Amino acid sequence: MLLLFLAIACMVSCEQDNDPQNIEEVNLTATLPSSSNTPKVLLSIDDAKAMMDTYNDDISRSNIEDAPHFVDFDYKDLKEYLLFIESQSKEANVEIEALRFYFAQYPSQYPSGKTPKDVNKKSLFYNPVTAFPGLIGNMSYAIQKNVDGTSEAVTVGSILDMGKSNDTDVQSLAGDDLEWPPPPYPNDPNDYH
Known about the structure:
Helix content: 25-40%
Oligomer: single chain
Radius of gyration: 19 Å
Strand content: 15-25%
C-alpha cells in the first residue's frame, strides 16, 4: 500500500508552478514516466499480493479482528498536498528526500481543542523528511518563518522540544485526511484477494 502511494507520489512530483491555487491547471504529463522508463518503486501484481497475503497471515495469527487492510487517498487532495509541501520546501531551500508515514491513532481530543472525526480509530499521518547537518538519517520537518522574512526547514523534534508547535511562524507539513473503507470482502475477485 505504501509502495503504491510512493509510486503515485513520484509520478505527480513536478517542477512547475507549485501554487496550490492552480492545482487544476498543472500539466503533469511532462513528469510521467514512459512505458519504457517505469518507476523503480513499482511492484508486480503478484509481489503486491504476496505482501498482502503475508500481512493477512500475520493478522490472523495475532487474532486482530479490526486491523486495517488499506487506506484510500483522494487523488486531487494528494496532488494538492504534494504541491504545497514542494512550494513550502522550495521557499525554505530544502530538498524533500521522502515522505515518512507514521502509524497513529486519533485521540479523543486534539491539543487545539478540536475533536477528531474518528476518535480512537487507527490511522496514518505523513510528513516530508530531509537530511539535516549533524543528524543521522532523514528527519521530519516543518517550515519556520523567520523575522527577516526568510523561511527555513527545522526538525519537528526541535519544534516540539521548544514548545513552538502552535506558533504562527511555524508551518506544519504533516498531512492526514485518509479514507479507511471497510475491509474488502474475503476473496473479492475484483481486488487483491
